[in-house]
Structures
1.
Amino acid sequence: MVGATAVAVLFGSMLVRDGLTGDRPPAPGAAPSAPSRAVSLTPDSPALDPSAPRRLRIPSIAVDATFTDLGLDARGELETPPTERANLVGWYRDGAMPGADGTAVVVGHADDRRGPGVLYRLGLLRPGLAIAVTREDRRTATFTVDEVRSFPKSAFPSEEVYGTTGRAELRVITCGGHYDRKNGYDSNTVVFAHLTSSSAAT
């Protein structure tokens, strides 16, 4: 498994360099003075056996996307989902699988030259909202959002974002902040969530 530091290399330069010239993706609300993840809004659910994710649903921001698996490129940076497939998110295949023990990492584009991307509205999520991942084993892992934060790419806290917490957690990440054509977006929007239930997919 590649460690958190190696994965973090991506987020110094991700996800889209061909951003919109108009509106920026919505920014998260004001971050709490201290992390809120220590006090779960919904009780934890036991971790599931590993199984690859197949579909991401976030009803509150109208996301219903398929997955592709992502690895690291020759520079040690995480690959990104192909921009020609608009309704697609990626998961880091060398990390935890969503719903299994550990911290699973999911990424998607905020926008591209055609307009808003699949995770354009990610910053609108708030604590208590649900994220559902349908998996290859036909189980749906439901996560509850604990907090949504924005981090400058120049000071991305890899251990805080990717570190193992002793339970099944999920991070959903996209670009945000200020955009310029030379460097892309200067920040990342990160959703912190933990597994709260699972069920057989219908």
Note: Residues 139 and 200 are 4 Å apart (CA to CA).
2.
Amino acid sequence: MIALDRTRTVAVIGAGTMGQGIAQVALVAGHRVRLYDAAPGSAERGAAAVAARLARLAEKGRMDAAERDAALARLAPAGALGELADAALVIEAIIEDLPAKQRLFAELEDVVDDACLLATNTSSLSVTAVAGALRRPGRFVGLHFFNPAPLLPLVEVVSAATTDEDAADTAYATAAAWGKSPVRCTDTPGFIVNRVARPFYAEAFRLHEEGVADPATIDAVLRECGGFAMGPFELTDLIGQDVNEAVTRSVWESFFHDPKFTPSLAQRRLVESGLLGRKSGRGWFRYGDEQDRPLPATAPPAPAPEWVTVSGDLGPAEELVALMEEAGIAVEREEDGVGAIVLDDVTLFLAQGGYAFEYGDNVIHYDLALDYRAATRIALAPADTVDPEGVRAAVGLFRALGKQVSVIEDVPGMIVARTVAMLVDLAADAVAKGVASPADIDTAMRRGVNYPIGPLEWGDRLSADWVSVFLSELHDACPGGRYAPSALLRRRGASEGKLL
């Protein structure tokens, strides 16, 4: 694969935040850049904003003055499309409107030569549909940068149904030469990240709507137990509820209302109320006064047990045995059993796909953790029939292991386990349908949305069989198709095969 030569001109159309960011990336990589916007004066203002950013980088020592001056000399605003005639690559970053993009690229074909690579930065529209208006759609690709483009490493290189392989290869190599982490994918709703990431938001919102726990508690469990950098409520407040909800709705509609992508009514109400998150001062949380931020529900301290019985293999939670022994708790092992921790009359199971009460009157489920040793919080979901002393005993066990404890309502799948299982399922489904390679999917989720590990790697750590059985039980508890495991996940689980 050969990247675009740095002596060639790159044109960026759309001088908003994203267009400015892409222009900055191409400039720093050494290209001449022409920045165009149809709105009078926008290209000049955009170029000035890029120049100001480069100046700040130089002031902070992240770019030397000579590099800054050379980059600024290569940047020029364009007053008309005709000034882009010498471009070897044109990247569009205008409004997310299909007819507007189609008109723009149809006009561009009369300006640039036949060898010019054309690319759209769309995040929600079909790349194939945008290319449909072109005489030569083979040279058209999606180059989906993430905002802010100069900082975030991921670029999704999207091949439309008509994209030539050489065009996709050049786009991929060019993004890599610009210091980005490109991944390849086919033209599918949401591409990789916005398709696979939907459960991270959707399951949290659904748990909240079901009254399982409040937003601050769900966020804390996903951060402190699941290992995610931010919880879904605080993250969508940062993104903007209108932006996140629009992406969710677009993917759902593009998949013909598939229940796996169903939007949240609670989030829709936020958008309708104008509670858009940080930018409006209020979303799931209030902003401006940190004292107003709610704290996660945390159980008070309770005495540690002197001993426990562990029956069978705890599977993904086996590390808890070592942690209990290190905490001075005597552990009696029983080889037979179904993977349980027994405290007097209370039995603790790792989160299952069903309700805790379905496994017995004195059953408490505990949530999945990315790393039980590193986790600082655990969620417990007791059956309604567990008495308060039984819950205190379970709280005391995990407090002895150095964990804060959040007690939530009895719910199938709990918080982390349910979210992770759905992420694994959608990633496996994307592999099966040829959206992208397993490695590219995991790279996209780590580099694009900062997941602690890729969902397919996570699935392999748990085993495809564990995830498939978990989702099958969840599907039985909550029928309707949302939780039915994908075909590839079931096949890999049955054969004890790997996902990654």
Note: The radius of gyration is 26 Å.
3.
Amino acid sequence: MGTILKRNVVASFGEGGWNYGIWGGPYHRLHQERGAKYCVYNGRLMAVDQGGDRFEEYWKQRREAGLVDTGKRPTEIVGPDAEAFCNKLFTRNCSTLKPGRAGYGLLLYPDGGILCDGILMRLAPDRFWYVQAEGPVYSWFVAQAQGMNVSIRDPKSWVAQVQGPRALDVLAAASDSGLPENFSYFSVARTTMGGQPVLVSRTGWTGEVGFEFYTLPEEAPVDGEALWHHVEAAGKPFGMTVCGLDSMDIRRIEAGILNNVSDMDETMNPYQAGLGSFVDMRKPDFIGKQALGDADKGILLHGLQCDAGEPYIEGEVMSGGEIIGRVTAAAWSPLLKCGTAIIRLTNAGHLNTAAVTVRTRDGNLNAARIVELPMYDKDKAIPRGLDKTIPPR
């Protein structure tokens, strides 16, 4: 088959021209100076490459801390019916989510297919933010809000995150008032950084200790460059560096964190994605619940490891001359010293296949093994701060 071509990315040029509907965000000029390359995510530029070495950046997130700009998009749900609205749409019981807390939020279509996932944060009894992955969430919310006393708003917030074992040290230094009180896993708090108001949540996309910070442009003008430099300076004593999404992608594959649209989509129900634990069938109702009653619950998404090389995204997984699945995400793991991937099987029964091969980036089929997700730290002891072991290089 020969060597498989490299991916396409978006470059940013210092000139005028067509760029409608794509937001670079408050830190964009700094990323341009660093020679960043992007993908377009939620209509936003997300820096997949910040000019550094992805494996060095990976180790920063495993051993110290990495600062990553992301394309996640917050949407605000506010009004007297905000809780009822969230219970109508999300598979979780939103009534149990207290102000100052966040939780995983899964949205379904009426047929039970996955629309989007993300983090649902409750900021007040009548106010939620949903920080989404790629997906048509805003339009879906507006359509479903008809007849309810709730407003759907775009707070124009931009999200970045710090991930790694020193992340909370960075937050304590970056926050003008120190580490927020009782800032446990999935907590949400308000603070200021360099005098600028931000929301912070103890969440992330790596399976490491970390936090995300959200600009609040409706409260005060955002000086993005000053805020970014402030966080960089706070992280310097702890070895933090700026990282591209590529390095974070390695870690999230190891951690079994799924990406909407690419790993899972509307053709898959949450059980097939391995997300059944986030579906509360005890709720009186939510969009998609009826369809889940007799849905196929065989898990289609699994991990895969290949000693010979990095699997090719969209490459076939083979057994006995038959295609039994495809690679949805892949990277070389410096820690596991093998190619790692998330794969989607065509049939849940293929999980018990004894011997498989996978297409790797050199174009060849190489021996591989299907493994459980996550590939380690199955109890999430690392992001909870319960396992503080620093992995050796």
Note: The CA atoms of residues 74 and 131 lie 4 Å apart.
